[in-house]
């Protein structure tokens, strides 16, 4: 259900919460209020008669063993997670076929959600399909709509779909009590120059040349989400801050306005989110170029993460790229590796990354436990080539930007 590129989907959906002390089974009452028959499905496996289905088909099985084919309106949930909470949402990332309500029935939790617009009848022509309305990612399969390795540009979909249902683009306003800016200390511990970059979906971006041993202190606003920090290598910029980098290039800018081009090792984070917690991790969903440490520096939070393996030199030949090692999604662009919709499993390539960096995200449906939390207001450090990482020599081009 979650990868960090989708953290804005998972942690910013409407969440209804109830406290529990013991983990008990949950009962889901699924009711059909339509005047016609539907075939309910659930994964993990289950269902309610089915020939080859028009929408939501799960390989022709009545008792589903996998996710359904788009388009289908989804009720998604995980039970007994962080702090004993259940997380649930209605998702249209696989499109829409049937209006839906998803609500708790227990006395301790009263907030539910619904998506009841007549989306099928009003579906934009680009997304129309028999019996439903596709999500743009299913149709176009591009980074612009699937957010595999770049910021999402939802302009077309927003204009056409926003008026139909707010759940196509779920953004929840969170209340902060004493939310303060966080300081990120970005240090280059490599023996070569890197050009650090930082971009947030909910804020601006930036970039700075860092010689070996240099640091960059970056103040990040509370509530920032969809944020990334990464290192660019072998860059050359002119006095206007225009140029290019061998890895991690962000449209030829010194001060990045968009995410970097793979391969690049990513420090990703969202600040002051659910329960005023910060969520952060190291991600290899855009590949690997520089070893990295991502750790809190405040006294109240101690757990950090690292990815320090010699991945560039050990990279499988199919994934090799100048200066780095690509994620298989970047190379093959298929459902198997990119998880455009529904379920996908680890592959031999993702296992290669996981074996070397077990605490990093390696594919879009990787283990959510790879994400670490700290209280809001925590400060952090991102270190390129931390102590213990392999000594990787790079021939960095000289630039004139500073």
Automatic annotation (TrEMBL):
Pfam families found in the cross-reference section: Thaumatin (PF00314)
Matches recorded under InterPro entries: Osmotin/thaumatin-like_sf, Thaumatin, Thaumatin_CS
SUPFAM superfamilies: Osmotin, thaumatin-like protein
Signal sequence residues: 1-25
Record keywords: Disulfide bond, Signal
Classification via PANTHER family: OS03G0233200 PROTEIN
Family: Belongs to the thaumatin family.
The name this protein goes by in its record: Thaumatin-like protein
Organism from which the protein derives: Gossypium davidsonii
């Amino acid at each position: 259900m979650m990868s960090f590129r989708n953290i804005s989907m998972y942690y910013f959906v409407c969440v209804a919460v109830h406290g529990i002390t013991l983990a008990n089974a949950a009962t889901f009452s699924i009711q059909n209020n339509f005047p016609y028959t539907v075939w309910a499905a659930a994964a993990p496996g289950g269902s309610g008669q089915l020939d080859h289905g028009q929408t939501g088909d799960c390989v022709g099985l009545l008792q589903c063993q996998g996710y359904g084919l788009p388009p289908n309106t989804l009720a998604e949930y995980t039970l007994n997670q962080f702090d004993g909470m259940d997380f649930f949402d209605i998702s249209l990332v696989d499109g829409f076929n049937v209006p839906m309500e998803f609500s708790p029935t227990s006395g301790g939790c009263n907030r539910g959600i619904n998506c009841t617009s007549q989306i099928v009848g009003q579906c934009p022509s680009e997304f129309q399909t028999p019996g439903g309305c596709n999500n743009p990612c299913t149709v176009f399969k591009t980074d612009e709509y699937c957010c595999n390795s770049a910021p999402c540009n939802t302009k077309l979909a927003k204009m056409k779909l926003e008026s139909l249902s707010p759940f196509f683009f779920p953004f929840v306003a969170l209340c902060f009590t004493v939310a303060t800016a966080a300081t990120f200390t970005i240090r280059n511990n490599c023996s070569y120059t890197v050009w650090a970059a930082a971009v947030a979906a909910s804020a601006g971006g930036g970039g700075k040349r860092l010689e070996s041993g240099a640091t960059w202190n970056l103040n990040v606003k509370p509530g920032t989400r969809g944020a990334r920090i990464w290192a660019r290598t072998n860059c050359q910029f002119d006095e206007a801050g225009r140029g290019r980098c061998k890895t991690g290039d962000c449209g030829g800018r010194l001060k990045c306005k968009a995410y970097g081009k793979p391969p690049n090792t990513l420090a990703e984070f969202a600040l002051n989110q659910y329960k005023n917690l910060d969520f952060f991790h190291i991600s290899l969903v855009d590949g690997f170029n520089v070893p990295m440490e991502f750790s809190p520096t405040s006294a109240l939070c101690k757990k950090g993460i690292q990815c320090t393996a010699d991945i560039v030199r050990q990279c499988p030949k199919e994934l090799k790229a100048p200066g780095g090692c690509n994620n298989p999604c970047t190379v093959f662009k298929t459902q198997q590796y990119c998880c455009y919709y529904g379920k996908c499993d680890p592959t031999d390539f993702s296992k290669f990354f996981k074996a070397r960096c077990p605490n990093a995200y390696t594919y879009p449906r990787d283990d959510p436990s790879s994400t670490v939390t700290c209280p809001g207001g925590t400060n952090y450090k991102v270190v390129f080539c931390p102590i213990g990482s392999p000594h990787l020599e790079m021939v960095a081009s000289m630039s004139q930007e500073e």
